[in-house]
Design a protein that fits this description.
The complex is a heterodimer of chains A (575) and B (165). Chain A is of the alpha/beta class and 575 residues long. Chain A contains 21 helices and 23 strands. Helices cover 31% and strands 39% of the residues of chain B. Chain B is elongated. Classes of the chains: A alpha/beta (575), B alpha+beta (165).
């Protein structure tokens, strides 16, 4: 009996099938034509052709953030692969699992500066969890299996697999075998919290008078929101989310005190600053959270739960570090609290919550919409929330609109909020929304964006047409790079250096040129009705261009170099 | 403060570049670095001499450990250990006086002269970094150093303790 032999290209497809991949997001080119030929000859995996490789990475990323499944990107060698770099960095900063298959020139030409040769493994080294140079055809299936395993375990992240052309061509064949139950001696993430640390954490929590739970993207990645809600209710503690952690607990939960950090709520930042115990769950004390680390929450004992030991005590020293998967550690903590007959200190809690409500009242001054004046961007997000019953998937670009969406759209569930938090990648929103829409065609999927960001991947309107991805694009059009302009107003004496978007296109015509529907909104009177109209159109992409007040700033905002609760709450007014 | 880190990692292409890249990416310092396969050919051992305060060292150890190719990392300088570095140095030996002095200093430091030219001696010396520094200083006082090459240090914990898979 002869063993069946396969080409490398066939092996890639077979391996992806074995790993239950449904979609590949990519763009063909010389070095991967054999792979595209193999994709053409099968029906299990659908290839989504984008219009720029960066969009392939963001679309895979958005698909992953919405579903939890690993996104797969395919690009050719050289510029195809380098176009993926920004998307890989975006996924890396937000710990999103992704496998990027990058073509490469034949092994015999590597190092010769061949046509479309770039050392993509070298280019991406600082922004990946791991990478592989495939050099032997027979290794392909197991390399891909390892790439998935590494991408999706421990602290997730992107993995790059480089595939030289001579491994994919029809002339070279080998038997196919794949081990999907991957074991590696050099990689064994620690998933259980150390019992001694759990006991210490439980003790500190029991003694706390002013406890706050601070949770981040780790909760979303671990699909641990139910457990988090149980824990918060057990403790009856206030909970704040990072930008990445929104939806980790319902935005309307009574214990939720809003987002914290640079544009966080007053009560969230005040609560953090005055807490005696901070329970950090899957969050990393990012500089957009802490403000000046020297002044960060001076009286708090910090319990830091994270799967990645390097995140612990990197910026803020943790008194009780717990390394483990956040869902497992929360369960361990709940078990321990039960074992020691924990019940919250009712007296202390009452006082703590009274104080928090005082801070909450300080927050309610954030914007004023006057009839007859320009539309406030916040008002648009509120309308969007109301019309979609708070149930939409909202993919955001980067800038003021991103912060307004985070502040004014309380997310009920994890994975609803899809944004580039760590890298802050403009151009992320539209392709990410497309990835979410591909996964959930029957749900409202919004791309909230600005007149700057949308132009960074606007070519994807064409992909939306090809694959029928009727996302609703809501552009908060302020004819400026709003966040840049805000900083220039506040820090650079109002000198608007290159923050205007001069010669803006007519977005309605752009949308129509791609075959979609465009709706322009420029007065407050028509805001609600026209937005309702936009969301009522189910089978066509609607591009809503909302002209908003260009002078509006995002508040609250950290005062630079201050403590976490040193904030501007409106123009010229400190908290 | 100076630290010596011993790292055991998969002997894979690109593994070294990940380590070096990590140090430059995160602005960690490298004083010296040596790398070679171990008795088990599937493993490489890297020894890095670095410097930094306790927080920096903690991050270095954690970040290196996080690399997928890394199996183990151990800081040698926080416990009893032995460390050695190899020096090859080519010195001017033009006349009797300098030849005698170089020979004498080499003997005192228990090095050996491993090659001679018409006007040069090449000397080999192993020891810890401090000893090598002292030797170079002594040579400098007596003759001219034409070329020198140091291996960077390697080390091991004393006693039974071993860094292995």
């Amino acid at each position: 009996m002869t063993t069946e032999l396969f080409t490398g290209a066939e092996m890639v497809v077979k391996a992806l099938s074995a790993l239950k991949v449904k979609y590949i997001f990519g763009y063909p080119g010389g070095s991967v034509l054999d792979l595209y030929d193999a994709i053409f000859q099968q029906d299990e995996i659908e290839h989504i052709l984008v219009r720029h490789e960066q969009a392939a990475t963001h679309m895979a990323d958005g698909y992953t953030r919405a579903t939890g499944e690993v996104g797969v990107v395919l690009a050719t060698s050289g510029p195809g692969a380098t176009n993926c770099v920004t998307g890989i960095a975006t996924a890396y900063m937000d710990s999103i699992p992704m496998v990027v298959l990058a073509g490469q020139v034949p092994t015999t030409l590597i190092g010769n500066d061949a046509f479309q040769e770039t050392d993509i493994v070298g280019c991406t080294r600082p922004i990946i969890k791991h990478s592989f140079n495939c050099r032997d055809l027979a290794d392909i299936p197991n390399v891909i299996a390892k790439a998935f395993y590494i991408a999706n375990t421990g602290r997730p992240g992107p993995v790059v697999v480089e595939l030289p052309k001579d491994l994919l061509i029809p002339q070279n064949k080998a038997p196919f075998s794949i081990e999907t139950n991957v074991k590696m001696r050099s990689y064994n993430p620690n998933i259980n919290g150390h019992p001694k640390q759990i006991r210490k954490a439980a003790k500190v929590i029991t003694e706390a008078k002013k406890l706050v739970v601070y949770s981040g993207g780790g909760i979303v990645l671990a699909d641990a929101s139910e457990l988090l809600t149980t824990l918060v209710e057990t403790l009856d503690a206030p909970i704040t989310n990072t930008l990445m952690g929104l939806g980790g607990i319902s935005g309307t939960h009574e214990n939720f005190i809003g987002m914290l950090g640079m544009h966080g709520s007053v009560e969230a930042n005040k609560t953090m600053a005055n807490a005696d115990v901070i329970l950090a769950l899957g969050a990393r004390f990012d500089d957009r959270v802490t403000n000046n680390v020297e002044k960060f929450c001076p009286n708090a004992t910090i319990i830091h739960v994270d799967i990645d030991p390097t995140s612990i005590s990197k910026t803020i020293n943790a008194h009780i570090p717990v390394v483990g998967l956040v869902d497992i550690v929360m369960q361990q903590l709940l078990d321990e609290l039960k074992a020691i007959n924990y019940s919250p200190d009712k007296e202390a809690l009452k006082e703590w919550w009274q104080q928090i409500h005082v801070w909450r009242d300080m927050s309610n001054v954030s914007y004023k919409q006057v009839k007859g004046e320009k539309i406030k961007p916040q008002r648009v997000v509120e309308a969007m929330y109301r019309i979609t019953n708070g149930e939409a998937y909202v993919a955001s670009d980067v800038g003021q609109h991103q912060m307004f969406a985070a502040q004014y759209y309380p997310f009920a569930k994890p994975r609803q909020w899809i944004n580039s938090g760590g890298a802050g990648t403009m151009g992320f929103g539209l392709p990410a929304a497309m990835g979410a829409k591909l996964a959930f065609p029957d749900k409202h999927v919004i791309c909230i964006t600005g007149d700057g960001s949308i132009q960074m991947n606007i070519q994807e309107l064409s992909t939306c047409m090809q694959y029928s991805l009727p996302v609703v694009i809501i552009t908060l059009n302020n004819r400026s790079l709003g966040m840049v302009r805000q900083w220039q107003d506040m820090v650079y004496g109002g000198r608007h250096s290159s923050s205007y978007m001069e010669s803006l296109p007519d977005f309605i015509k752009v949308a129509e040129a791609y075959g979609h529907i465009g709706i322009k909104i420029d007065t407050l009177d028509e805001l609600d009705s026209k937005l309702e109209e936009a969301f009522s159109i189910k089978n066509k992409l609607v591009f809503v261009d909302v002209l908003v007040d260009e002078k509006e700033h995002v508040y609250p905002m950290h005062i630079r170099q201050g403590g976490i609760d040193d904030m501007w709450i409106s123009k010229g007014i400190k908290a | 403060m100076r630290h010596i880190l011993a790292i055991l990692l998969e002997n894979e292409p690109g593994a070294l570049s990940r380590i070096v890249g990590l140090f430059s990416q995160r602005a960690f310092n490298i004083e010296s670095l040596t790398v070679a396969p171990t008795d088990d050919n599937s493993l490489s051992r890297i020894t890095i001499a670095t410097s930094g305060d306790d927080n920096v060292l903690e991050q270095i150890v954690k970040q290196v450990n996080k690399l997928v190719d890394v199996i183990k990392i151990s800081e040698l300088t926080d416990r009893k250990h032995v460390e050695r570095e190899l020096l090859l140095v080519k010195v001017s030996a033009m006349n009797d006086k300098s030849r005698t002095e170089v020979k004498r200093i080499t003997d005192i430091f228990r090095g050996s002269i491993i090659d001679i030219g018409k006007q040069v001696y090449t000397v080999e010396l192993t020891g810890n970094s401090e000893k090598l520094n002292a030797f170079i200083e002594a040579l400098n006082n007596e003759t001219e150093i034409i070329e020198s090459a140091r291996s960077g240090c390697v080390g091991m914990a004393r006693g039974e303790k071993a860094l292995r898979v």
